[in-house]
Structures are given as structure tokens and as C-alpha cells.
Design goal:
By secondary structure, the protein is mainly α. The chain contains 13 helices and no strands. 77% of the residues lie in helices and 0% in strands. The chain is globular, with a radius of gyration of 24 Å. The protein starts with a helix and ends in a 6-residue tail after the last helix.
Length: 313
Amino acid sequence: MLGFLAKRLLQLIPTVFFVSVLIFSLQKLLPGDPATTIAGEERNPEVIEQIRRQYHLDRSWPVQYAYWIDGVLHGDLGESIRIKEKVATLVAEKLPVTIQLALMAIVIAVTIGLTAGVVSAVMKDTAWDYAANIFALWGRSTPNFWLGIMLIFLFAVELNWLPASGYVRPTEDFWASIASTIMPAFVLGNAGAAVLMRHTRSAMLDALASDYVRTARAKGLLERAVVLKHAMRNALTPVITLGALELGELLSGAVLTEQIFSIPGLGKLIYDAVFNRDYAVVQGVVLVTATIYILLNLLADILYVLVNPRLRS
């Protein structure tokens, strides 16, 4: 197990390096001049030249990358052009908000998707199976922005049960924090639940048709034990991968949902940074989310080994 983990960690190093090069290179292809943006409306040529020297913008791309990655390795992601604050500080402030939202969304997605997938597979070709498939189709077809607006209209405007927007930290008021994030979490978890349901159903159907399940039934085991202990455990392997990928997407792709509900997370931070050409913030946020995404894939590989004993050899 330790050897497997060490091997996977070593494989992450070139992956993260390649991602950092890609992020830096693509950022340089964006239109606009950072020095001109920093200089403001006056755009004095001397000031612009001084800014270029200060931020190494007068050097070649490889040299600029070397300065940037050296700062990253020392915990310095740069400074925001717009608000003159360290990017690492901004990320540390916004990341817990997005993590809370993503974790709530993945709990909703796994709870609904896993349950619906198992029920659909066990009750194949019944009304429950058709209902679960309709739910999956609806979940993947419904735009997040439309569902978010409808939830705000129903639960905030009509019923007045939940706040329409805003965010409360769990350390300030736990239940108020849950109330402020439950709607955006459901919006994000809805689509994930649909995907998990389809994959769980497919994996469960394969598991239920396998020889070891037929053997377990022939031994007279209860159907509940056959489904939950034998079939479901083996069907979880592909679902674990999908769950890790979904969580990574939630951490990096909640831009629109955070805008609709005014959630001050990474999505809103990078949205504002792109529109204000705040290049250091964009680079820092994308690098952090990409690294988290890679680490979640490593976590999925570890869970494979824990769930499936055959992989431990």
C-alpha cells in the first residue's frame, strides 16, 4: 500500500508541473496588457515601463514562468492587480466557502444518485426504474441558472423559508450557514446525482448478473445482503472515480451558481478576476483548483484499493 501511494505521488509531480506550464502559457494568450491595466487611466509611459520591470513583464515567457513558479513553491501566488492583496490570502479566504458548498452538493448527489441507481438496478423494468431514469434525464437537461432562479422564487420569495442570496459562515451561525447554501448546493448536486445514478445503475446491473452474486443467492443469503454486501461493494469502484471527478468539478465549476446566489467563493473570485483582467488571481485560483482536482484523483485511487481487496496485491 505504501509503495503504491509513493508511486502515485511521484506521478503527480510531472502532472502538476505540466498543468502549471499550461496555466501560465494560456494566461499569456489572453488579450490586454497587465502593465497598462495596473497603470490606470493616466497610462504614463514611464510608469508602465517601471511596472513592467517590477513584475518582470519585460522578460521572456520562460523567465517570467521561472519567477512565478519560484514564488508558488514558496507559497506566493502573486498579488491581485485590482485590490492589491496577496492571491494566497484571497484563495485562503474564499476556498473554505467553495469547499463547504461542494461538500454539501456531493453529499446530495451521492445520497440521491446512489440510492436511485441501486433501486433502479434492483427493480429493473419497473415503475421505479422508469422514474429513476426520468429523474436522471431531467437532472442532466435542467440548466443550473434556471433551476437556481426557480428555487429562489419558490423557497425565498413565495414561501419565505430560505434566504434568496448571501452567505453566513458556519462559525458565525451553523444553521444560518446551512440555510444560505442549501439551495445552491442542491442546484450543483442535482446534475451530479443524475450522472451518479446512471453509472451506479449500470455498475449494479453488471454486478447483479455476475457469478458471485448467483452463488450468494444459491447459498440462501437474504436479498438485502446480496445487494448491499456483495453486489454494491463491487459496483462502487467506478462510482468512486466519478464521485471524485464530480467533486473536483464542483470545486472548480461553481462560477455561475455562486454568481446567482451571491456566494463569495472561488467561482465568484475568478469571475471577477477574468472580467477585471486580474491575471495573478486567475492563475492562482486555476492552479489551486487544478491541484485539488489531481489530489482527488489520487484519493479515488486509494479508495479503490480499500474497497476492492483484489487490487491490494
